Amino acid sequence: MANLALGAATTAAAELAAEDSSSNGFFGWLFSSNGFHAPTVDEFFPPALLFEGTIFELNRIILARIIAAAILIFLFWLVARRAKVVPGRGQGVVEMLLDFIRVQIVEQVMDKETAKRFLPFLTTLFLAIFAFNVTGIIPFMNMPGTALIGLPIVMAVWVYILYLVVGVKKHGLGGYLKTSLFPPGVPKGIYVLLTPIEFLQVFILRPATLALRLCANMIAGHLLLVLCFAATQYFFFEAVGAMKAMGTVTFVAGFAFTLFELFVYALQSYVFVMLSAVYINMAIEEEH
Amino acid sequence: MDVTTLAEVSGNVATIGYGLAATGPGIGLGILIGKTIEGMSRQPEVAGQLRATMFIGVAFVEVLALLGLVTGFLFT
Fold it and tell me: How far is CA A195 from CA A142, A181, A200, A203, in A?
């Protein structure tokens, strides 16, 4: 009985303290907000940490990118440093991953000779995109590095330049333009319609959709997670009565969506690399 | 003469736009994936190749819905 009373007293005191400190301190910030805040685009423009106002401005998202890159390089350095003919456990996992990229993605699209030539590039692309995506569900980072359009644009431009260069190298400038803008096997008159569409496709739409698809997926996924957990916070700490129970639903949904996001991150890296392989393969393909 | 407002919309109409933008790709994905499953059950030996082709198609269809999402943010 005394215990219970004591418990009640401490809870009351804690509540009082929480109310007191609602204007300052971390917990004050955590437990005080008035009304439900739906996430907005401002989510992707966090305050700068370093070098504010310059082009080297460093914020939370850039920091997440740097950490992801460092961890990726460190992990592979660690495995590659003591690579053996008979792989251990760590090396086995990495080899399975590399094998997956080679067999399931690149060799599905290209023949073996071509695949060998572009495999290092495509493998790097896959691992980099996945590493930058997966910071979105790692606690305390909670922001995919690819959610700002800059990084997807860099990767898409990389692919864009690569497929143009290998195409021109293989067919010559005129030959490449002829194979890509004038696909054979259609009546001459159709080229009036077909060539502008193909031009848009090859020179604008392919890189633009590569970058947009990755970025928009990450933005949508991040907003979804923020919405779930913001709603949980609102229901638990501010809603009254039976509405508090709704918080359980959004909390569980938040975890389910976290797992779903992990799937989406892997799928987006897969799709990006798959499409890059297809575009490169289209550029060097012989005329049918 | 004063105007009587019987109904009004508050908030952003862009959300309706996104709903519309999602229907087309939704139907498209349904047909695309359904047909792939059909093909796989007819010829299980080419399942891997069908799956790879399906994901390429999914990527093309999906980008339409994502364009709807992006324009929702752009034109508020």
Answer: 44, 5, 9, 12
How many separate domains does chain A show?
A: 1
- Residue among A209, A212, A278 minimizing CB distance to B56: A278
pLDDT per residue as tens digits for the range A11-63: 444 444 444 444 456 566 555 556 677 777 778 888 888 787 777 888 888 99
Is A22 within the bounds of a domain? no
- B18 contact residues in A (CB cutoff 8 A): none
pTM: 0.81
CATH architecture of B24-74: Up-down Bundle (1.20)
Dist. CA A74–CA B68, nearest whole Å: 39
CB pairs under 8 A between A and B: 40
Whether residues A270 and B73 touch (CB distance < 8 A) is answered with no
Interface predicted TM-score (ipTM) of this complex, two decimals: 0.72
Name chain A contacts of B63, Cβ cutoff 8 Å.
Answer: 209, 212-213
Tell me whether residue A265 is in a domain: yes
Residue from the list B49, B55, B66 with its beta carbon closest to the beta carbon of A274: B55
Cα torsion A105, A108, A110, A113: sign: positive
